Amino acid sequence: MTTFQRKPIFDAARVLMGRGFTRSDIDLLDDAIDEALGIEKPKTGARRTSAAGIALMHKWEGCGKRCDDGSLQAYPDPGSSNGKPWTIGWGSTGPDIGPGTIWTQAQADARFERDLVKFERGVSLAIGDALTTQNQFDALVSFHYNTGEIGSATLTKLHVAGDYAGAAAEFGKWIYNDGKPMNGLRNRRADEAALYRRAA
């Protein structure tokens, strides 16, 4: 599948239009790009991660392991005994990723956007109609993106019950990989808990 960089498309459209974008213009162009990339769109009214939430995930899922030409190379999980799962781009894993996998930045960005919709949906299903601020939602999506455990985590149950202090305290328990505490996970969970606690 051909992938696209969004900025050049937006820049070209801005020149053609001879003006800046309205919010509606941005949404329409984003929809067109998503359709071209085959990115599944969330249902109308579905919760979406804010820029702050995406920035947090990008901080901890940084596109590391770059080749000299700027492309991205898959790398083994540094905390697991067998190196699995192999990871590339913005923390992407899966059966299509392993030793020798090489992506462009555009491929990494497109995969992140597609996967983000899936994890947002997972959080939305897990929390149902529980009262949730944008910052709480963003923190939960980041947690789920990294652990895949939003459906079974105690912090989800506490959040749904309205015990926000208890839920925030649960983030710090998810710092282990192969039974070993990891400083990177400890720091990420601290960032997620701080975002979760932040006033709307």
Automatic annotation (TrEMBL):
Annotated InterPro entries: Bacteriophage_GH24, Endolysin_autolysin, Endolysin_T4_type, Glyco_hydro_24, Lysozyme-like_dom_sf, Lysozyme_dom_sf
Catalytic activity: Hydrolysis of (1->4)-beta-linkages between N-acetylmuramic acid and N-acetyl-D-glucosamine residues in a peptidoglycan and between N-acetyl-D-glucosamine residues in chitodextrins
Class of this enzyme: hydrolase
Protein EC: 3.2.1.17
Gene3D superfamilies tied to this protein: 1.10.530.40
Keywords: Antimicrobial, Bacteriolytic enzyme, Glycosidase, Host cytoplasm, Hydrolase
Recorded family membership: Belongs to the glycosyl hydrolase 24 family.
Name of the protein described by the UniProt record: Lysozyme
Natural source organism: Novosphingobium indicum
